[in-house]
Design goal:
By secondary structure, the chain is mainly alpha-helical. It has 14 helices and no strands.
Length: 255
């Protein structure tokens, strides 16, 4: 048994003694007392109370209280009203100008009136679309459902005249301008189709009327193209393909 006791003492041999344990306890008590004293000091310190802005101002505090400055111009409704008033009208944004439409219509109705090149060079498709629809509607009232022919010949004819004018003109022309001019000059053809509602055009009177309308449309279109593209002396060369195009519309209207 003595050997076993010696073995236990050797097996559990350590440098830690009872004195060290007492010293550790004393150290832990000292740390606890130090923590408790700090906590007591922190609790004894007075907490900062909320001080109103009036008291700070009376005490001479000149700092900023984080109060945003109000801008009367920013919140005033007059700024919004001014922004709406400065916006252009809706028709002007869409490119619809009734004054220019009326001037172009008068230019087509009077072939002898000189055309304003600055106005005729605009891409305005409001009038041409209305005149194409009017031509199809009058043909429908005359008993002819020809909307497909009207739109198809208009598109193909504009492509052909556009290619021809780009070859003849040094400045060039856009497809929208060509479609606008040819569409406005379709107005006399609408008058011819309106006459077909009340009486037949398959006769001498109808043939003569169709020839007059073809000459009227082609003369107006060539005059506008000459003025817009500065192609002086080439009006007859432009009028010939335009007459061929409007001749197709006359055939649809008469027959």
């Amino acid at each position: 048994m003595s050997n076993l006791g010696q073995f236990d003492s050797d097996f559990y041999q350590s440098n830690y003694t009872v004195d060290n344990q007492e010293q550790t306890c004393n150290d832990s008590n000292a740390c606890g007392n130090l923590y408790g004293s700090r906590k007591q000091q922190a609790s004894e310190q007075p907490q900062p109370a909320f001080v109103p802005a009036e008291m700070l101002a009376s005490s001479g505090y000149s700092g900023q209280f984080f109060q945003p400055a109000s801008n009367q111009d920013y919140y005033s409704p007059s700024s919004y009203i001014d922004s709406f008033e400065e916006e252009p009208p809706l028709l002007e944004e869409l490119g619809i100008n009734f004054d220019h439409i009326w001037q172009k219509t008068l230019t087509v109705l009077n072939p002898m009136k000189p055309a304003d090149g600055s106005i005729m060079n605009e891409t305005d498709l409001t009038g041409p679309i209305l005149f194409c629809m009017a031509l199809g509607a009058t043909l429908l009232l005359a008993g002819k459902v020809q909307f497909g022919y009207v739109y198809g010949m208009s598109a193909i004819g504009c492509l052909g005249i556009h290619a021809l004018l780009n070859l003849m003109s040094s400045s060039g022309v856009s497809y929208g301008c060509v479609a606008s001019v040819l569409g406005y000059c379709l107005l006399p053809m609408v008058i011819l189709s309106s006459c077909a509602i009340f009486f037949s055009l398959q006769g001498t009177f109808g043939t003569v009327s169709a020839l007059v309308i073809i000459g009227w449309c082609s003369l107006s279109a060539s005059k506008i193209f000459t003025s817009a593209l500065a192609m002086e002396g080439q009006q007859l060369l432009i009028a010939y393909p335009c007459a061929l195009l409007y001749g197709l519309f006359a055939l649809v209207t008469v027959f």
